[in-house]
Predict the 3D structure of the following.
Amino acid sequence: MPQLGITTGDPAGIGPEISLRAAQEESWTGACRLILFGGWDLLKDRAAGVGLPFGFEKISMQELLRGDELPHRGIVDIPAENVRPGFGSKATGDAAARNISACYSACSGGHLDAMVTAPLNKLFFQDAGYDFPGHTEFLAHLSGTSEYAMAFLTERLKVVLATIHLPLRAVVEAINSPLIFQKLKIIITEFSRLGLPCGRIAVAGLNPHAGESGRLGAEEAQSIEPAIQLARSSFPGVAIEGPLPADTLFWRALNGEFDVVLAMYHDQGLAPIKVVGFGEAVNVTLGLPFVRTSVDHGTAFDIAGKGIAKHDSMMTAIRWALRLSSKK
C-alpha cells in the first residue's frame, strides 16, 4: 500500500487535531498507511482533549528508515514540550521544523511515497532559526532543489506562482524572462510527470490589462513576452497564451479554456483559487524529488485545541498525495 507521511505542523495550532482526525477516517483503511510526525504524548493528549480516538502505534525513525513494515496508522515521536494550544513560540516553530526534517529524511530515502504537511507559523519558524519563508523554500533547501514552484490545484482551476512570499513592491524587480521561462518549464515537465494536463497554459500579466500595450507598464513586453516566446519554441507541443489580463483570465481558466495559469505573484493567483475552492484546494510543491501536498490554510491559533477545526483540507491533501504519487 502507499505510505504517506503527515507532518503535524506547529503543535500550538490546529495541525495536530486535523492530522489526527483525518488520519483516522475509515476511508483510508486498506487504501494506504499514514504515518504522523509529531510528539507522541502531545498528540495523545490533544486527541483526548478534543474527544478523538487514538488508534495509532508508536514507531521510531530507526524502524522507519530500516524499511520495517509499518502500521496502518503510526506516529514517529518527535517530542515537543511546554506547548499550549493557541500560543505559538520559538519552541513550537522548532518542533514544526523537526517534524518536516524527519519526514523529509523518510521521503528522500524512499521509505514514504509522499509528504502531507499541516500548517506552520512562519514567524515562529523563523524565530527558531530557520531562515526560510515557509515549507516550500525549506524543502527545496533540504533536497538541494534549485528549480521549484508553488502550485495550487483544484479539479477545475490550477494555478502556479511565478513569485511566492515576496512583498508586492519586490515582485516587480523579481519578474524577469529567465524566471518566467523557468516556471513554464517546471509546469510542463512536472505536470506531465504527475499525470496532470498541461497542453494549454495561460500566463497572467503583471499590470492591469496586461500592461495595455505599454501604457500601464512595460514588464509584459520586456520580461514576460520573451519568456513565452522561448517556451513556445522549446515546447512546441504546448499552447502557451499570454500575457493576459488577470481580471478575466481566471474566469476563462475556471470554465475550461486553460489547463493551468501561471500567476505573477502570491495574491494574484491565490485569491481566485481560494474563492472557488477554499478547503478543496491543495498546495503542491513542484520540482521536489517526491510528492509534497499541503492544506490551504494556516495554523488558526484562535481555535486550536477547541475541537472545532475542520479537517476537510487535510483530507483533500491526502487524496491528492495519493493521486499524484501513484502517477509519479
Notes: The radius of gyration is 20 Å. The chain has a mean pLDDT of 94. The chain has twelve helices and twelve strands. The first helix runs from residue 15 to 23.
